[in-house]
Amino acid sequence: MQKILNFIDGEFVAGQGGEFADHFPTTGEVIAEVSAAGKADVDAAVGAARAALKGPWGKMSVQERVALLRKLADGINARFDEFLAAEIRDTGKPRSIASHIDIPRGAANFNVFADQILTSGTETFEMATPDGGGALNYALRTPRGVIGVVCPWNLPLLLMTWKVAPALACGNTVVVKPSEETPATATLLGEVMNAVGIPRGVYNVVHGFGPGAAGEFLTSHPGVDGITFTGETRTGEAIMKAAANGVRPVSLELGGKNAGIIFDDADLDKTLEGIGRACFANTGQVCLGTERLYVQRGIYDRICEGLAAKAAGYVMGDPFEDATTMGTVISAEHRDKVLGYYDKARAGGATILAGGGAAEVPGYADGYWVQPTVWTGLAEDHAVVTDEIFGPCTHICAFDTEEEGIALANNSPYGLATSIWTTNLGTAHRAAAQIEVGITWVNSWFLRDLRTPFGGSKSSGIGREGGVHSLEFYSELRNVCIKL
Ligand code: NAD
Predict the structure, then answer these.
(1) How far apart are CA 60 and CA 208, in angstroms?
(2) How far apart are CA 27 and CA 89, in angstroms?
(3) Are residues 338 and 444 in the same domain?
(4) Is 253 designated active site?
(5) Is the same domain home to 73 and 8?
(6) Are residues 295 and 430 in the same domain?
(7) Structurally, how many domains does the chain consist of?
(8) Are both 148 and 271 inside the same structural domain?
(9) Per the domain annotation, does 455 fall within a domain?
(10) Would you say the C-alpha torsion 53, 55, 56, 59 has a positive or negative sign?
(11) Which residue from 45, 322, 28 is spatially nearest to 186, judged by alpha carbons?
């Protein structure tokens, strides 16, 4: 049986927190035993990260760090197939997704933030003084220190390097706590760190669960100078409380209940293609995915019919096969949660246009399969319409006026992302300005320029990452004022 170890101070070590099983969601089989970090291991990881700030890493120029970041990207790509297999086995997601998104983007993040740190200057201000000599202010970009990085399971490598790359670009050191569901690729990255010459202690990985375990040990550790987290809103609240001790900054990328808004004049085929992906890609386990769809009355029937056909068109099976277009959900527990909402929809009188239950996939009876599902007919305050389900499902509701569509979309405590589908530029601009979310797409979904601000409004998060916004979180600006 494969053992997955913690990575502390450049070495793979067994933790004192016992072991837990890592499952292949497609079959339910145990593929590895993961060694959980105890409190002492998290102490050691934070200590190593702190020591590394004072070692060779802390003395490197930006150019030297950038050269190493580029080697990390190359190093992942050189072992692309290993990363790909590890990610597929941890998540059950199809090769078609992991080979196009997870692993290439996971590697590319290091190049993106290498470019970013090289081209991002800081502010200078000249000021007048009463004696006429003047003064010059400039800001120095300094690392925050040790960053705690707590990650979810839905895009494990990609979302982890999205944080680790800018943190390292800014000169910080990190302690990563991957999701207990997906420990493999963060661990494999430790090998790449050593191979390309990242000094020991700069990148550490501690495994385990959240409350009362590695996650909480890390986020409550006084030696951590900042915490970046992606995951559920409720966990974000707990982490924010932990971060209050010691007044540590947090970046929180949290949950959503994202709405799509389709206007009568939308291009039907392009909309169905885009919104189909938004609802079902990665088995609906994308924070930006659409679980509420508001459709203007004139196009409503065609969207309902078209989306139901999209749902029915997915091919489930071996994720390593190119023909497979939909995998399982992440775990038995998550399958039960998603199916619980499917039951609630049925009990609430929903009209089921597609799916509606567990899926049976020949040869994979023990996998965590659920059907891509489309409902109509539920009240807007029904739990299926208000709660983040994080499964391949959406509820469609009709609207008449632009105002009404926007109001329905905004009727949520969450505010992560939306997509607007229309061929009228005026409608697009008006709606985009009024939707209370951090990320709006018009006639597209998940089209990402990594320099743009990324994050949520309302309960979907605090702060923005991406481009220079990441640098703002992972560095501290110190102003120097020189009297001339
Ligand atoms: P989760 O909150 O259950 O877990 C995320 C991580 O937090 C895991 O590593 C977990 O072990 C850890 N954790 C849990 N409780 C903790 C605690 N008390 N202290 C410290 N760490 C703790 O989330 P998940 O189920 O892994 O991921 C799915 C969620 O992530 C969804 O809500 C989804 O919307 C969200 N998400 C958001 C974004 C975004 O960019 N906004 C991106 C991806 C996923």
Answers:
(1) 32
(2) 10
(3) yes
(4) yes
(5) yes
(6) yes
(7) 2
(8) no
(9) no
(10) positive
(11) 45
Find the CATH number of the domain harbouring 365: 3.40.309.10
129 and 169 share one domain: yes
Task: Please identify, by atom number, the ligand 1 atom nearest to the C-alpha of residue 155.
Answer: 43
Q: Which residues line ligand 1 (CB under 6 A)?
A: 150-154, 159, 177, 179-180, 209-211, 215-216, 219, 230-232, 235, 238-239, 253-256, 287, 388, 390, 416, 456, 461
Please say whether the beta carbons of 87 and 98 come within 8 A: yes
Q: Which of 149, 235, 448, 460 to mutate to test the pocket of ligand 1 (most atoms within 8 A of CB)?
A: 235
Range of the domain at 189: 2-254+460-483
ipTM, two decimals, is 0.96
Please state whether the predicted TM-score (pTM) of the whole model is above 0.90.
yes
Query: Is residue 130 in a domain?
Result: yes
Query: Exposure string (b/e) for 251-262, b if CB count within 10 Å is 16 or more?
Result: bbbbbbbbbbbb
pLDDT at 289: 98
Give the CA radius of gyration of the chain.
23
Residue 454 counted as domain residue: no
Q: Taking the CB of residue 381, how many other CB atoms lie within 10 A of it?
A: 8
- Mark whether 243 and 266 lie in a shared domain: no
In the reported structure, the alpha carbon of residue 153 is separated from the centroid of ligand 1 by a whole-number distance in angstroms of: 8
Do 328 and 353 fall within a single domain?
yes
* 231 shares its domain with 304: no
152 CA to centre of ligand 1 in angstroms: 5
Within a domain: 325: yes
pLDDT < 50 positions in the chain: none
Which CATH number goes with the domain that contains 160?
Answer: 3.40.605.10
